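Researcher: Structure for this, please.
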Amino acid sequence: MEASPSLAPSLKPSLESTPQNDPDKALFTHWQATGDKTDFEEIERRHWQALERYARRHLPPALAADAEDMVQETFTRLFNQRCDLAPDSHLGGLLYRITQNVCKQHIQYASRKQRDYRRTCPLVIEAAVIDPKRDPCAREVEAADARVQVDKAMKVLSAAEEQAMRMVYLGDHTESSAAEALGLSPSTLHGRIQTAKRTIRETVTID
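Model: Predicted structure, C-alpha cell format:
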C-alpha cells in the first residue's frame, strides 16, 4: 500500500494589518466591554471573506472546501474568549492567528483520521470481511465501504473492547504492550479483542 501524501502544508502567518493601523480598535473595544451583538456581527462582516481566503490558502486541496467551517470556528473561539482577551489585542492579527491555529488543528485531525483509516484495513481483513485473494481493485472498493461499517461496528462495542481494539489495531501497541498499559493480564486483553472481532464480524457486511 502506498503511503498517503502528507496533508500538512507549511503554515506561515500572514497578518494583514499592524497595531499602528487598526481600523477596528473602537469597534473591538466596545464589543469587548459590552458583548454587543451588533458589534460582533460587524466584526464578522468586515473580516469573514478575507479570513475564508486565508483559510483556503492554508488548507491542502483535499480540505479546501472546509474553509468556511474554519472561519466559523474562528469566530466561535473569538466570541468565547471575549472576556479573556487583553484590552490592547489587535483584532486583525488575533483573527488571523486563531484561523491559522484552527486550520493547523483541522489538518492534524484529518491526518490522524486518514492514518486510522489506513490502519483499519488489516482489521477489516482479519475480521474476514474481505477476501485477500480477491482482485486488488475490488478489494480497494470493498475496503472503503468496510471502513465505514467498521466505524459503526466500533460504536457498538463496550468501552473496554473499543479501547483494546483501538490500542492494538489503530494504535502502536501489540496485545502484550496494550495489556501492560491497561494493567490487564494478556489473556484478558486477548479475550476482549476476540469478543470485539466477533462483534465486528457480525456487524460488518459488504453487499
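Researcher: Any notable elements?
Model: Confidence is low (pLDDT under 50) at residues 1-19. Residues 127-203 form a domain with the Arc Repressor Mutant, subunit A fold (CATH 1.10.10.10).
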